[in-house]
Amino acid sequence: MTITEVDKLCQSQVGMTAAYRAGLLLQENGWMRFPPACWDKPAILALEGERCIAGINCSEDLDDGVFAVHFAWCTEPQALAVLLLRLRQKLRNTACTNLTFTYHEGNVAMARIARLLNAVPHSHTYRMPLGSGGQR
Fold first, then answer.
1. CA nearest to 52, candidates 99, 108, 86, 14
2. Domains of the chain, residue spans
3. Pick from 49, 32, 36, 37: which is nearest to 11 by CA?
4. pTM tops 0.85, yes or no
């Protein structure tokens, strides 16, 4: 397994394809409307040969002091653990004071990150269908 970092996810064809594939489940189940990965943001990728087996798409906003994880995915759970070590190293070296991320139901990789980092929810988003004529 090789760990690599790219300045933009779109600079890695295999990383971009793996992220898009991982996001399809979220879209198909209606948890989000658009691909969850940010193509123009950095990523930490785990590669096995020519395959991307895990990734963390993240960025720093030094003006707001926020380090954001935009999307994480994995097909090999041990690869995500290695990426989390690299993420923790980045967090130790950042000038940011807050880490933010959102994970949707069904995104096991993001839920695992929340557990391993002992993250505390900051807000909750709820959604309910309104039916064909809307709420009256």
1. 14
2. 2-116
3. 37
4. no
What single DSSP character describes residue 130?
-
Q: Can you tell me the distance from the alpha carbon of 35 to that of 48, in angstroms, rounded to the nearest whole number?
A: 23
User: Six-digit token pair at 69?
Assistant: 């994880």
pLDDT tens, residue by residue, 110-136: 788 788 778 888 777 777 778 765 555
- CATH tag for 2-116 (out of 3.30.160.40, 3.40.50.10320, 3.40.190.170, 3.40.630.30): 3.40.630.30
User: Distance (Å, rounded) from C-alpha 88 to C-alpha 67?
Assistant: 11
Q: Which ranges constitute the DSSP H helices of 29-133?
A: 77-92, 108-116
